[in-house]
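Consider this today:
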Amino acid sequence: MPATSRPALIVLVLATLLVPVAGCTTTVQGMASPAGSLPATTADPVKWVDGVCGALLPFVRTAGTPPQLSTAADPAGLARGISDYLGRSAGAADSAIGGMTRVGPSPVAGGDDVVTRLAQTLTTFKTSFQDVKTQVDAVDTSDRKAVVSELPKAVAPLQDLANLPDPTVDLKASPELDQASQHAPNCQLVRRQTSGR
């Protein structure tokens, strides 16, 4: 029904939006390390970028898997699906921020600035997801008319996320980091995840 298609479209657009924000698309000879095995400090650009992408990958997967919104006949289910999605995505953004911190300092000039901007962007997403989740949870799902009128208002602020800059532009601007990501398995997984939609 048209009244419930607007929130569905916003969430789906949001999931698509997350692709360029979270993706490492940037490549130097070196060796990748298994996820979680990265030392606190590494001089290898490939390992470092792989660690950054490894921290981002769960967020990309979570945020890139929006709820099934074909339950328009079930307003409570629709609101619950959106709320659960927002909660999972906020948690994944927070984990990604912590994971990037644990990767340690960049062995390449400018890499730390890229991570700082990614963390700022992820913080904005996390806060937006949490705020919107609070609004969605406040909708009276026992009242179908309230869901139809209030749910679109609750999720509307997510549209503002479309104006966030793509921090991976900075990563691409560094030839060394850009080359390193071409050899980093986690960055390839991020690419596959984001291009699979």
In short: Residues 1-40 have pLDDT under 50 and may be disordered. The chain has eight helices and no strands. The first helix runs from residue 2 to 22.
